[in-house]
Amino acid sequence: MPVLIRQNVKKDILVLPTRSLWTLANTTTQLWLDGADASVFTSSGGIISQWRDKSGKARHVTGVGSPALTANVLNGLSAVRLNGSSHFNNASDNLQSNNAGELNVYAVVRRTVSTNGVILTHRNSTTYRSYGYYASTFISSDGADAASNHQIGGADIAKSLNYSIHAFKAIVSSRMALSINGTAISVTTGTCLNANGSAGFQVGAITGGTLWDGDICELAVTTTNIDEAKIGGSLAWKWGLVSELPSNHLFKNSPPMA
Question: How many domains does the chain have?
Fold first, then answer.
């Protein structure tokens, strides 16, 4: 809080506390992959062999194929570029939802082609949950259960062809929710199955196909959406996407502060 310093002169001095920008470091994440932080990569000739997790959970991912660390992708920051045949794998850890079955995925991404592409998949021994785009109008699928396919409109699907902030909210036995750049998208079908387990996860792929072709700038996973507005605002200001936020977004005119 401000401190008023009384002086033996004709005026007082109001000392304001120093505040810093709010970032993902100010909330609890289950996974945090930051494409703008050069210190989290092991690479050779620009090809990434490891992308290290900043959540503190050590859920690092290993490069498969030729994922590339690419400079000056967006707002002067670097990002990871996948070519439709490369991805990242973590074979042992899994992304666990909370006791209410909730898991939230935030991603700053862009697809370079309009074909299928998956941002993230996590799984157990019997099923998986994906977050991405496939079969023209679906954003997620849980295993081979057609009832779990979450459908949105084709015009909303096209938004992923530009750099954008995606926020997926999945709760077991409920329909997945999605917002793009802080605007809610209508999801018309689907029921989330329980994909908790220890069979690992992948970034930019589902095992056996449906790989991402484009850029992944930043990816974070949480088990609560309490900081959703702050996360979206922080990512928008960091990646130069403030103009894409709706006019009534809490952080349209200034970034969140810690």
Answer: 1
